[in-house]
């Protein structure tokens, strides 16, 4: 089916179709049934598929993921919803110490087709623990796939691919893009590895993922006014990282800027820059730059506009890679 949809509605369509096509798919999480989820991503699914397949869980993240691990072990394809990013931490033991290791622990005999959906990131004026970007914890963990999406089509296609995958997948949903609208083909499928070149350019490579892809595309449009042609890449998969697509771009442009909401230290941007240095150091014309959240806890909502990377910070970084003195910095 094709039509205009918000990201939240596109995710709902992906879950609906997965439930309809495979009786082994089961959803569980807090308030996903009667309420339809805090962001209404599971709206209407309980009424259509019943309480045996759309399960309202207790307020216990470790219990949600632990139960799903048992379900996957017994052949089901559970899809967990963690209500907010900051609440995934009680489930770290189940995810890192159990889920990620079972395939290896059994010598490849046991597959773990389990998807964990996590609304992530800031920009909606939420309170503490509701705007985190915890992706680096999980991307660091062998045995987990970590993916995200930037627009409604990619959200729908990638979630279907995650549910169909026999590996455990952590699927990060940028909550400030839940209400973005675009045309969606619910029959399209993404893969769980490839980055996307969303905009070709010649002067510098700008890598982003999740919510920051929209900001990166806006920065590329603004840079045109200064005669700068930016290539924008949506990383999509944070583990594994599509090193080939990023390196191929940097070989053409000679410059790299990476941006994300999460703090900089020991982050996905650190891994991307390391990969580029390893793969194409001799083609770099300038030191890579990164534009990220600051190395502090996520601030109160009144300060989040200063915390989150914006257009000016990205364009200043682009200017530095080009050896230009930014008009914004001069002002």
Explain the overall architecture:
This protein has 331 residues and is α/β, with parallel strands linked by helices. It contains 13 helices and 14 strands. Strands 3-2-4-5-7-6-12 form a seven-stranded mixed β-sheet, with helices on both faces. Helix 10 links the parallel strand 13 (256-263) and strand 14. The model has no long low-confidence stretch (mean pLDDT 96).
Brief summary:
Its EC number is 1.2.4.1. The chain contains 13 helices and 14 strands.
Please outline the major beta sheet.
7 strands, mixed
Query: How much helical structure, as a percent, in the residues?
Result: 25-40%
- Low-confidence runs (pLDDT<50, min 5 residues)? none
Number of alpha- plus pi-helical segments: 13
Q: What would you call the structural class? A: alpha/beta
Biggest sheet strand order reads 3-2-4-5-7-6-12
Roughly what fraction of the amino acids lie in strands?
A: 15-25%
Compute the CA-based radius of gyration.
Answer: 20 Å
- Overall pLDDT score: 96
